[in-house]
């Protein structure tokens, strides 16, 4: 019994001692410094320096040859060997033969037709001498100029109706123009270069039977190109034909200068863009090459260039007024890539230069220009002596 009382007494003493210790510790602790507050966020800023800024529009497109033809045959015949092969990369001068088809059969048939025409005219001459003696010399000279191996000379001019009817009644005109049509067709057996250029595609070889309407290849001017690109509808309003364009390539060293030559009028419903074409001339460029284009579209006075993500949805920027954030409306002049050009900011205004999550008007911040910002001090140098 006595032992039990002793244990109870010891327990009471321990609890009492613990309570006294806690009371002492609570009363002896220093009161909290109520002046301490949540730390102020440090922010990146910049001072506005409005100036004149060149406005540009960035485009990307693929080069296409401005002078490009698809070569088709209008006649049927076997392709012959020529001085130059019609192969990709082969260069031709203007007027030089690109392709030659076998024309012997058509040529001989045409010689026969010319001979028949000369025979017809010879039969008509005696009647002309009787009915139109003053015109006999003209037609006799014309007959003397006819060579069955050469193209027919131009017909003498016929002004008198009676003479015209006389010649028409003997089928002279119809036979003449039938032969001229055959001469035109004969010329189509030889395909000549319409301009100086290079073969970009060949689909035929010598000895092949070429049929009328068959595609034989493609031919381009290798130094004259146009860049086809897409431009936003709102940006197209700033661009006009004749504007200078700076061109660069990610795959080819160098820089080229072009000019806007035309802008499409039809909007692509899928992308809501217009087609724009930039002309550029340079032998080092190749068809199909992708180029980056920068179009100079003017200049904005008293403007600043900033990251695009600093603009709020209601066209405002955060500025730092000593230690507080404030919102300032601005005029957006131009967007490009991930940046923008704005006006309406006074010189010296401290602008927020980073995107802060949860930023709001009146938020406390600290910047190098805040009155509460710590001033940097240099350690005093020791004096010698």
Main sheet overview: 6 strands, antiparallel, barrel
Number of helix segments? 6
Oligomer: single chain
Cα shape: elongated
- Give the neighbour order of strands across the main sheet: 3-12-15-14-13-16
Radius of gyration: 46 Å
The beta-strand count equals 22
Broad CATH class of the largest domain: Mainly Beta
Give the rounded overall mean pLDDT.
86
Share of residues in helices: 10-25%
List keywords for this structure.
alpha+beta; conserved putative lor/sdh protein from methanococcus maripaludis s2 fold; Elongation Factor Tu (Ef-tu), domain 3; OB fold (Dihydrolipoamide Acetyltransferase, E2P); six-stranded antiparallel barrel; 22 strands; 33% strand; elongated
SSE inventory with pairings:
Blueprint: H1 2-28, E1 41-42, E2 45-47, E3 51-65, E4 68-72, E5 77-78, E6 91-92, E7 97-100, H2 104-131, H3 133-145, H4 161-168, H5 172-187, E8 190-192, E9 197-202, E10 209-210, E11 215-220, E12 224-232, H6 233-236, E13 244-248, E14 255-263, E15 273-281, E16 290-307, E17 316-321, E18 324-329, E19 331-336, E20 339-343, E21 350-352, E22 365-366
Parallel strand pairs: 1-22
Antiparallel strand pairs: 2-21, 3-12, 3-16, 4-11, 5-10, 6-9, 7-8, 9-11, 12-15, 13-14, 13-16, 14-15, 16-20, 17-18, 19-20
How would you describe the overall organization of this protein?
- The chain is built from 6 helices and 22 strands.
- It is α+β, with helices and mostly antiparallel strands and 385 residues long.
- It folds into 4 domains: 45-53 and 300-366, conserved putative lor/sdh protein from methanococcus maripaludis s2 fold (Beta Barrel), CATH 2.40.420; 57-64 and 222-299, Efflux pump adaptor protein, beta barrel domain (Elongation Factor Tu (Ef-tu), domain 3); 68-101 and 189-220, RNA polymerase II/Efflux pump adaptor protein, barrel-sandwich hybrid domain (OB fold (Dihydrolipoamide Acetyltransferase, E2P), Beta Barrel); 104-186, no CATH class.
- Strands 3-12-15-14-13-16 form a 6-stranded antiparallel β-barrel.
- Helix 2 (104-131) runs antiparallel to helix 3 (133-145) and helix 2 (104-131) runs antiparallel to helix 5 (172-187).
- The model is unreliable at 373-385 (pLDDT under 50).
């Amino acid at each position: 019994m006595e032992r039990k009382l002793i244990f109870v007494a010891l327990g009471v003493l321990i609890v009492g001692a613990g309570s006294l210790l806690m009371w002492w510790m609570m009363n002896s602790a220093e009161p909290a410094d109520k002046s301490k507050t949540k730390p102020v966020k440090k922010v990146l800023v910049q001072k506005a320096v409005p100036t004149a800024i060149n406005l540009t529009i960035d485009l990307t497109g693929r080069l296409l040859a401005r002078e490009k033809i698809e070569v088709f045959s209008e006649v049927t015949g076997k392709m012959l060997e020529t001085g130059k092969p019609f192969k990709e990369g082969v260069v031709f001068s203007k007027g030089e033969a690109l392709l030659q088809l076998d024309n012997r059969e058509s040529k001989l048939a045409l010689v026969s037709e010319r001979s028949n025409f000369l025979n017809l005219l010879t039969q008509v001459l005696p009647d002309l001498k009787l009915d139109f003696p003053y015109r006999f010399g003209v037609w006799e000279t014309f007959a003397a100029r006819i060579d069955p191996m050469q193209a027919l000379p131009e017909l003498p001019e016929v002004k008198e109706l009676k003479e015209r009817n006389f010649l028409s009644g003997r089928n002279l005109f119809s036979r003449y123009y039938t032969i001229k049509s055959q001469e035109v067709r004969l010329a189509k057996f030889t395909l000549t270069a319409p301009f100086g250029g290079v073969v970009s595609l060949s689909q035929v070889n010598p000895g092949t039977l070429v049929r009328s309407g068959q595609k034989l290849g493609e031919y381009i001017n290798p130094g004259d190109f146009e860049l086809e690109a897409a431009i936003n509808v709102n940006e197209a309003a700033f661009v006009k034909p004749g504007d200078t364009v700076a061109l660069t390539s990610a795959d080819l060293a160098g820089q080229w200068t072009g000019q806007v030559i035309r802008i499409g009028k039809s909007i692509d419903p899928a992308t809501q863009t217009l087609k724009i074409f930039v002309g550029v001339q340079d032998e080092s460029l190749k068809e199909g090459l992708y180029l980056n284009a920068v179009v100079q579209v003017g200049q904005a006075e008293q403007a600043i260039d900033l990251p695009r993500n600093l603009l709020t949805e209601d066209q405002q920027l955060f500025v730092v007024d000593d230690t507080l954030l404030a919102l300032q409306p601005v005029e957006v002049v131009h967007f490009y890539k991930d940046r923008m050009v704005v006006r309406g900011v006074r010189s010296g205004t401290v602008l927020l230069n980073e995107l802060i999550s949860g930023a709001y008007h009146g938020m406390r911040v600290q910047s190098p220009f805040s009155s509460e910002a710590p001033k940097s001090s240099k350690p005093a140098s020791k004096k010698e002596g």
